[in-house]
Specification:
This protein is an all-alpha fold. It contains three helices and no strands. It comes from Arabis nemorensis.
């Protein structure tokens, strides 16, 4: 029981560089979608961004204070 090679046909899909309608639904009503997502998840956004912004501002302040400390 030997193995016989099987011819496979490869299908190649490509987008035309002239095709402009690749994902039209993604950009449709984009401001409305962003507003809906933000208004729906505002508490999660605040809980995510507050520590990130706080840590960044603390690091910038510490860096500035350290720079000024070595000045004199």
């Amino acid at each position: 029981m030997g193995k016989q090679p099987v011819k496979l046909k490869a299908v190649v899909y490509a987008l035309s560089p002239f095709q402009q309608k690749i994902m039209p639904g993604l950009w449709k009503d984009l401001p409305e979608k962003i507003h809906h997502k933000v208004s729906e998840n505002w508490i999660s956004t605040i809980l995510l961004l507050a520590p990130v912004i706080g840590t960044y501002s603390y690091a910038q302040h510490f860096k500035e204070q350290e720079k000024l400390e070595h000045r004199f």
